[in-house]
Design brief:
The protein is 20% helix and 38% strand. It contains three helices and nine strands.
Length: 134
């Protein structure tokens, strides 16, 4: 079911500062910020030869990651994203195995313009897992 690792997502308190750190200190290529109001975040992607790092900053007062930053003011790892060929088939297989899909069970369009789902961290050793259809 799982394809390649698509990205590791880090919540950051200051997206501009985090982008500069990756770009200027580590020499990475960093995308332009992209606001995703439907997800309550602004994101940038750090492009690596074999994957990406997604930097997330809360967007709006009701951002789903605002609570994460309240508990972790310096930021930290938020989720890991794996690619799948068929997100609906993956969802059904995972649900049949007892995994819980967050939200309303329906894929949403993610930052790459592709369908995504999130799986409950309690079902995956404390790690929030995102699946992205490719």
């Amino acid at each position: 079911m799982l394809g390649r690792l698509n990205h590791v997502a880090l919540v950051v308190p200051d997206l501009a500062a985090a982008s500069a750190l990756y770009r200027d200190t580590l020499g990475a290529r960093v995308s332009a910020p992209q606001a995703l109001p439907e997800h309550g975040v602004t994101v940038v992607f750090v492009e690596l030869p074999n994957t990406k790092v997604e930097l997330l900053e809360p967007l709006g007062e009701n951002s789903t990651i605002r609570g994460f930053l309240e508990k972790n003011p310096s930021g930290g790892m938020h989720h890991i994203c794996y690619e799948v060929e068929d997100i609906v088939a993956a969802r059904e297989q995972l649900k049949a195995a007892g995994a819980r899909v967050l939200g309303d069970d329906e894929p949403k369009i993610g930052a790459h313009g592709k369908p995504v789902l999130f799986l409950h961290p309690k079902d995956f050793m404390g790690t929030l897992v995102e699946l992205e259809q490719v």
